[in-house]
Amino acid sequence: ILSCITPVGWLERCPTYKEQKQQVKEKDLSNYAFLGYPVLMTADIVLYRAEVVPVGEDQVPHLEICREIVRRFNSYYGDVFPEPQPKLTPTPRIAGLDGRKMSKPYGNDIALSDDPESIRKKVMTMFTDPARVRKNDPGHPEICNVYTFHGLVNAARTGEIARDCRAGTIGCTSCKAELAEKLAVALQPIREKRAELLADRRALNAIVEKGCERARAVAEETMRDVKKALFKSGA
């Protein structure tokens, strides 16, 4: 239904669509499944009448397309859906290991389920200040992705790290090692909870089924309203 009222031009101007077509060369992304992702995202949102959607900064353009689709649907068939608003965290975008947007297709991500050794290996490959060739070269923490990550999981030390980096008294290797340790500790509760849930498949399936029941009830009510609106309009 939503695909029928969404102009192709809206989808083609999405920054994420353009970026991934340039960055992901090993896959053919010239298909509707990829181009039409914002429509699928819209369906997932409006089916449950969501008013606020937690997203990363890179998803805000998708949500704006969602809002445009909602406005068009409501103008055609009556006020059925609320216009969802984005909700961003204090850190709305996290760069990947190579400085680009963190994305699994780019192979530059740190997974929430990664064990400490995997985290250490990944962190040690992170891009840092390109101007620092030797350990005692003065650094520029404000452009260093490793320093940005320290701000997320090691905030109490960022002042000292920035000072030592600028003075050339701390090397990138030791800075990365400290980050890897702090990041592993920060992700440990998530990693342990994930393992706990996966260890009891029956309980996990029960949680999923309960959530499905709640979601199904809302979705069925929404679709009744959508069909009623379409019927009234003669569509």
H/E element string?
A: HHHHEHEHHHHH
CATH class of the largest domain reads: Mainly Alpha
Q: What are the low-pLDDT stretches, counting only 5+ consecutive residues below 50? A: none
What's the main sheet like? Answer: 2 strands, parallel
Number of helices: 10
- Derived from helix and strand composition plus strand pairing, the structural class reads mainly alpha
Give the total of beta strands: 2
What would you say the CATH architecture of the largest domain is? Orthogonal Bundle
Average predicted confidence as pLDDT: 92
**Superfamily (CATH H level) name of the largest domain:** Tyrosyl-Transfer RNA Synthetase
| Rounded Rg | 23 Å
CATH topology description of the largest domain: Tyrosyl-Transfer RNA Synthetase
Query: How many domains?
Result: 2
Helical coverage, percent range:
55-70%
Strand fraction = under 5%
Tell me, briefly, the overall form. Answer: elongated
Distance between the termini: 10 Å
The strand order across the widest sheet is 1-2
